[in-house]
Amino acid sequence: MNASRGGGKPIPADEPASAASALDDVRLGGRCFAEDDFDGARTHWEVAFRELRGAGELRRAARVAADLAALHAAVWGNRAMARGWIDRGRRLVSQVGPCVEEGYLALAIMGCDEPDVIALEQEAELALSLAVEFSDPVLEARALSESGFALVAQGQLARGFARLDEALAAATSGEIDDLAQVGKCYCAMLAACDRCGELGRAQEWTAEVARFVASHGVRPRILHTHCRSVYGSLLSATGRWPEAEQAMLDALSPQASQAMNHRVENSAHLAELRLRQGRVAEAEELLRPYEDCVDCCAPLARLHLAQGRANLAAAVIERGLSELVGDQVRSVPLLALFVEVNLARDDLDAAAETVSRLLALADEADWPLLLTEAALAAAKVAAKKGDTERALEFLNKAQQGTPRGDRPHTVGQVHLERAKVFSGAADIVRAVTEGRAALAIFERLGAARDADETAALLRDLGERGRPRRPDAAESGLSTREREVLGLLREGLTNAEIGARLYISPKTAEHHVSAVLSKLGVRSRAEAALVAGRLRAQS
After folding, report:
1. What is the DSSP string of 416-445?
2. Among the four given CATH numbers 3.40.50.300, 2.60.40.10, 1.25.40.10, 1.20.1630.10, the one describing domain 2-227
């Protein structure tokens, strides 16, 4: 019986394994991986592993086992299979003695797929010591990048990014001839930048890595997809929502890589944006396939809270926090959200306890945004207790740590919370001033839910609602939403819009809701009138 090579010639079961043909399979597997043919990569690498082991090339076989582990973990989310391949490789190197392959096995599962960053740092330090001992510059760069990522995740940004910068400097300067390992160093940098909002650093290294990859005449789809996903997330954080939305949709398109880790990550990013836009049903649809994934815990909890299911939100947050070990950067948003959840449940003691935990983390880390998150959460608790002075003190700290151009949505939240505090203290003039500032930011961004909440507060303060300019609002519509607006002008129902655009009636309903929200109108008839005026003006 013959074993398939995934496109190569059959291998007779009784033919002696050939190390040379095995190395061909290693290369072909790498080519398949770059082209997003993951089944082909698996087939070639499994054949290579068997041939190399049969030829007594145990160290090379162990290296292939590390590749197979990374494939299963990143592409299919199969951590049990990944651990099986790591153990398989370790059994082989145990017959050889100390060798550099131990380091590659230690780093087989990439840091962005590892919820325990304490263990990741330990494995990376082991790999770094082996790289130095055996003079392996490739492993050294990988170990620096993964340890740097682990440090960043623990809130030690200066030390972590120093290692990541060093790793990519080595990776893109010709010291490393393994494109796959360069890609993994770059992915570690992208993941670290994404989680900390480092847009400038991500752009600089993206340009450099793109130059390096182009010089090799390849463009791995998985690398491009990760880049688009991270770019979308960072643009979203900095308030460039239309660009962010397009980048995220690109990373979820049929032309993008189908690797599970990037699809989960990008779906979580886009769901966060949809929730801020007030498109709750679309966020729910994005998260539904991945509710078991830790990357989706924050947007999923926010979704439950938006739907009035605070207990479900609390359960999701608690699960996420239990899975993350040492990862302060991902734990902080969950903890800040936990404060909101407990306030919604009128559990002031639990909210205050969580704030204490956040403030303690802020003291330990060198991450300014952590202090902002902690201060904003602390202000909400102080306001709930009626401590106006303390609440305003924390809000001032939050605003100082958030330059306006970096995190406009957070700045808007600070203004809104300040408006609430002044309102509670019966300082109407200041409450209105802060509320109007918040509303201006939220309307510019297209943050529909926050804008609605702010507008309601202003109405309670006696301010008349100010209608949005239809022309300005219309400019914020996506291409699809403009199409829907045109069909609303024709008086079509959701089912008819769906049929015209080849989408489901439910999806059409989502688009109609988004159009009404962005235009600031209450009915389809009002939207049709706006569409008519816009057409007459054009």
Report:
1. HHHHHHHHHTT-HHHHHHHHHHHHHHHHHH
2. 1.25.40.10
